[in-house]
Structures are given as C-alpha cells and as structure tokens.
Design goal:
Two copies of one chain form a homodimer. Chain A is an alpha/beta fold and 278 residues long. The first copy, chain A, folds into two domains: 2-165, Rossmann fold (3-Layer(aba) Sandwich), CATH 3.40.50.720; 170-276, 6-phosphogluconate dehydrogenase C-terminal like domain (6-phosphogluconate dehydrogenase C-terminal fold). In chain A, 51% of the residues lie in helices and 13% in strands. Chain A contains eleven helices and eight strands. Chain A has helices spanning 10-21, 33-41, 70-77, 95-104, 145-157, 167-192, 197-206, 209-215, 222-231, 233-255, 259-272, and strands at 2-6, 25-29, 47-49, 60-63, 86-89, 108-113, 134-138, 161-164. Chain A has an eight-stranded mixed beta sheet, with helices on both faces. In chain A, helix 3 packs parallel to helix 4 (95-104) and helix 6 packs across helix 10 (233-255). The model of chain A has no long low-confidence stretch (mean pLDDT 97). The interface between A and B is large, with 92 and 92 residues.
Chain lengths: 278, 278
C-alpha cells in the first residue's frame, strides 16, 4: 500500500522503517527539511517532503504528531487527500481525538500503537519497535469494516497485536495501567521530598530496587505526564478517585490492625498481578 | 572473631558464607538438625547445632530469625552468653526490637543489612549478597563505642556500607523507601481489580513496563507486607497520611486543570529521583 506518515519522530520514523521493509511505499511528511533528508537516508520513507501535496494518492495517512497537534494536522491534510483515504493517528488518548477528527473526516479511525522508548525524534527511530506490542484501534459506528481490516493488517505487518475497542474503554484502560501509575508514583516522590533533611538523606541512601521501581514512572517526562492528565482528564480523575478509596481501605486496615484482612488483600494482589504481565 | 549466627535462612546463611570466608569462626544455630547439616556442608558454619550451649564463648551473636521471633530468641540465648558478648539482629524494623532487646541485654545493638532475594531458607544463601548494600546499625545511649566499631568492621568485611542512626529515624526512612511503596503499589492493584470485567481484561492486555514496575512490590510476599505494617505501624501510618495529602494535591491540580503546576511537580520529581538511586 501507499502510506503517508505525517510527523517523523520516534513513532513515525519507526513505523516507516518497518512498513517500508514489508513492501509498503512510504511518503514521509515533516515540518523540517532536515528531518525529510534523514528519513530518506535512513530508509524510513521512499519520498519525503515538508508539503502535504505528496499525500494526494496515499491510501492511508498515519498522523504521528504530538497529541496536541493531531486535530489541526488532520484539518490541514484533508484538502490534499482522495476521499477514500483512511486517516489514523498514534495518540495515547483516543476519545477526545476521535470525537473531533471523525467529524472532520468520516474515514478517521483512532489508533494507539503501545510502544516507545525514553528517546524521541527521528534519530531514535528503530526497526521492530512494535514487535509484540498492543496496537489498539477505536472505530466508530461509521467505520467501514474493510477500512478497519486494512489497519489491522498494518498492525500485523509490524508484528504488533491488534485490539479493537471503544475509544472511551481504551482511555479508561490506559488510565488504569499507564496514566494512574504515573500519578501514584509521582505522589510517592513528592511526599518523600517533604521529609526533614536528615531522614530524607538516610532514605536516599537506603533506597533500593523497591523504591526505584515504584518511583520510575513518577520521575519520567513531565510534558508527557501533563499531556496524559490534560487529554485523559475525566478517566484519570475517575481512576484516581477509586485509587484513593482503595488506599483509604488499606490505611484503615493498618490503623485497625486487621492483619488477616491486609494479608488477604496482598494475597489477592499477588495472584492477580501476573495477569497484567504479558 | 568467633561469631554466632542464630537462624540459618537466606540472611543468616549468606552472612555465614561471607564472614567465614573472611576468616571468622562461625557457630551456626538452627532449630532443625537438617539445617545444621546443610550449614556445615555448604561452608556456612564451622560448627552447627540446635543447642544454644555452643554460643558460650562467641564474641558476637547475630540473630537472624524472622522479626516476630527476635525478642524471644534473645531471651533464650542470654543464659548461655558471656556478659561481654554483643547481640545484634537483622530485622527490617528497629525501634520496637531495640526497645525490647536493649532492656534484656545491655550490649544489644540493632542491625539491618539491606539485602535479600525473592527466595528464603538456607538453600537460598549466597556469597556476596551484601556487597554494596547498606548495613544500618542503631545504637542507643548505652552502646559502647568499641562494640559499635566491631559491628561496623563486620559490615565492611561483607563489603556492605555501614550507616549509624537512631532506631526511629531508621524506621521512618525505611517506611518511605520500602514499606510505603508496598502499600502504594498494593492499593494500585487493588483499585484496578474493581474495574468491570471488559475494561479489566483490556487493561491486563495493554499493561506493560509502567504498570509492571509500579505494581511489583504491591504484588510481593503477603506475609512480609503484613510484617512491615505490623512492626512499623506508627511510621507507616505517618508516611501513608503524608502520601495521601500529596496524592490529594495532585488530584486537585488535575481537577483544577493547573497544568503548569502539575508540570512543576513532575519536573521536581524528575530532578529528585536520581538521588534515591545508588
């Protein structure tokens, strides 16, 4: 297929590498000429340009810009597309994007390939980034069966595992497993920092793998954390409220010295956790 | 030195291996004869017995039983010791143990070598377990300088890093970096499990490294989790209350759409976290 990729960063670049190696023809679009040159040099795209006119006969466009720019990018590319073109995106939140973009373009299908690294930019692009990862698509009632099948085929070309669900269910699920953990973990670091200097210094010296793992996502990219909260605000607030209730229950068990009940909670957790590990 | 180790599990066994290889004479005590045989076979102890009488001329006794048995073990061994013998323990909580045991034996000095594996028992004992790890000692006002120096020398023989602090400050610091993370992480798994089956299943499928790391210690050994809460209850409740306040602040920022303030919190976290990683 002829596939346009708009935004050639880590995700866009990595998609280009893998899809091109699977025989697709890749049209890369970037705001910067130097990025287009890199895309051609690295084998990420067959043709690359800063102009949307190259998109005129692509079958699928994958919008790989930051989440805040997705809707405006869709608006800008629409005048250049054939009416049958499928537009999809790679944003980590789906409901607000799908709400807006499916009104702009009836063949818009939200997408979320769930892979990444700590790096960003085209130089961080790598082959096989999506191997074994989930790739979620969130069709609407208007989505054509064959359009969804074509996107699923792309996910399979990436050796990713396609999942199909409602945009709101996606946002709820990723809040639980990705956005809530960031806030839970961030609150842990934030609380520690309010300790007195002597105890804080000892705590820093004594911290090992338990603290390292529990604090990891709370000490990550601040812009990404704010984006999650901003675009998935409703679902994140919902899961935070439920988390807070459960934290209170744990506090109450410890306060009331209900050791058997606490052990039962930890027992159930220990049995449940492996189902989250793939 | 002639050193007694009472309780030959993962920690006691590993201490024996390293201290014996450093030229110390190790007397191993276990409730079970088969464990004594293993200790001799594995080179963990020079002599091993189920009877405390072997301890009559040791200079230091390291009590390596589970936390709940430390005080009663100290009581049982006292009649067999020379009055100058130093007793120390390896419990992960110090204040309640030091309170009790220093009244039983004036040469009692609390200790906490901060290393371990997911395994337990003498067969899990391994050389160099304590290399690079913190080894905390919590002397009291009555502690003799030279006794503390001898314990510090043992920590150095293990290639561990000795820290000296007040028992309560120790318990406060480990609550922040070890016990609080367990409860924070446990509450995360607990909250997820209350989601509807459809969303829970999707969340399980989509979960990756962020959830894996943040949930790790909350899905760990239930008995250990209860022990922490039981023996470090006051400090854990204190840090849980402070954590809850900070969680509420984060919730309020998201509710109020204070994105700059949220970014500042995450920025500060990102800068602070490396100080906890050794």
């Amino acid at each position: 297929m002829k596939i346009g990729i708009v935004g050639l960063g880590l995700i866009g670049g990595s998609l280009g590498l893998d899809l091109r190696s699977q025989g697709h023809q890749i049209i890369g679009i970037s705001r910067q000429d130097v990025t287009c040159q890199t895309a051609l040099k690295q084998g990420i795209a067959d043709r690359a340009s800063t102009k949307f006119t190259l998109l005129q006969d692509v079958e699928i466009v994958i919008v790989c810009t930051p989440i805040a720019a997705i809707a405006s990018t869709v608006k800008q590319i629409i005048p250049h597309l054939h009416p049958d073109t499928i537009i999809t995106d790679v944003g980590s939140v789906k409901y607000p994007i799908v709400e807006t973009c499916s009104q702009l373009w009836s063949n818009f299908i939200g997408g979320h390939p769930m892979a990444g690294t700590a790096q960003s930019g085209i130089d961080a692009a790598q082959a096989n980034l999506f191997e074994g990862a989930a790739y979620v698509f969130t069709p609407t009632e208007k989505t054509k069966f064959e359009d969804l099948e074509r996107l699923k085929a792309i996910a399979l070309d990436l050796n990713a595992i396609p999942y199909i669900c409602d945009a709101q269910i996606h946002d709820r699920a990723v809040s639980w497993i990705s956005h809530l953990p960031v806030m839970v973990s961030a609150s842990l670091i934030k609380a520690c920092l309010q300790e007195t200097p002597e105890t804080l210094e000892l705590a820093q010296n004594l911290a090992s793998s338990g603290f390292r793992d529990t604090s990891r996502v709370g000490g990550g990219n601040p812009e990404l954390g704010v984006m999650m909260a901003k675009y998935n605000r409703a679902e994140l607030l919902r899961s935070l409220a439920q988390y807070r209730d459960n934290l209170d229950q744990v506090i109450n068990l410890i306060e009331g010295e209900k050791w058997q009940d606490l052990e039962q909670v930890l027992d159930i957790n220990g049995e449940a956790r492996p189902k989250f590990l793939n």
